[in-house]
Design goal:
This protein has 449 residues and is mainly alpha-helical. It is built from 18 helices and no strands. Bound molecules: tryptophan.
Amino acid sequence: MKDNRTQFATRLGVIATTVGSAVGLGNIWRFPYEAGVHGGGAFLIIDLFFIFIIGVPVVCAEFIIGRHTGSNIRGAFRALAPGKPWGLVSYIGLAASVLILSFYSVVAGWTMHYTVKSAGGFTARMTADALHAQFDTFASSDVLPVVWTLVFLAVNYFILSRGVRKGIERMSNILMPMLFVILLLFTVNSLTMPGAAEGMRFLFMPDFSAITPSVVLGAMGQAFFSLSLGLGCLITYSSYFKRDTPLLRTSLITAGLDTLVAILAGIIIFPAVFTFGQEPAAGPKLVFEVLPSIFANMSGGAVWSTLFFLLLFLASLTSTISMAEITIAYFEEEFGMSRKTATALSIGIAMTLGMLCALSFGALDGIKIFGMTLFDLFDYTSSNILLPVGGMIISVFVGWVLDRSVVKGELTAGGGRITAMGVRCVVFCLRWLAPVCIGLVFLYGLGVV
Ligand code: TRP
């Protein structure tokens, strides 16, 4: 490992950046709508299984690779398996991170638009139907969504070009505590609503009849997406960890807080949905169509609405900077680019593809590949295919190929207080459980078997 490489300055920074990467639209926008469509509690249970039994060990695997090599994802595999085809997984990671960054930025752009609109009090003057129509009109228009996507990515450029410590770490240290405060405010408010009990029942009472193989694949994709897993994002971040950062503990804290935020988002959204007689299975539009009509009926609705979309925006930002960092570190280290050039290139690619995604709800909605718009195609291929495949390769690599002493050394470094039994459990998951589960779910979910 190179001695002069940047590292996160503090332990708090490690947690804030890693949790910041994990907590995002995946928790606050995607989890509630997926749970809403797929039977609430049942989806939650499957999601928890994938996060803690499969997800945590694979998070450790990424941490082990990243910290041990202290390198971008291409360099990491080159160092660990020179001349072997394992390194090809880094190209999956690079491609997927660009695809995800592109469509994710479109939704993040929507959150910025809605923050500004809410601050102007737009919900107060509108009926529920008008608010529903408003979102469709906005998302399918040609200019505004594109502009907001570009603005959002420009903010990313601004932070990322300042570097790992001054940009990423400092930003996360400020934003993550803010995010938790806003979340708690909403949770308290939501629990006092008349529909709270019904909302809780929906979220926590499992209805297993809604579970099909494609739902299980969806839950696995959700768990991976939510943990930022499978494409080297955590390899990249952990390459900035110090030698004494305890990896297992960090992965458990990340998974724990990530799950907590998803559950809190459910606790915030479903009581409101039931209180105001809305539909929990509204899908991707849940947050943008259903919530504003709820805010319109609340006292102080404009303030709540502004805060909510601000929360989504902040959560998105700490996630997208982690996606972009994958390609930035790659361009910097593999091609010797300066931080600024590497950032401009990464963000430039995302801006180009992001514009196309933004337009796929309107001007380009006729362009369908495999029956999907560009936005859906990017989302589906990256979350349901590239993430699980990447995750499987990473777990097989660390479980079977990587020297056991490296795995053990990394897991126990820095007083990681993990027993020999603990190490064996992690290795067992990586060797057998994760690959077999991922493989089965994957083949079933795609309808191959
Ligand atoms: N985990 C983030 C969320 O839940 C999204 C994310 C950030 C991500 N970095 C990633 C997803 C890398 C996959 C891979 O919103």
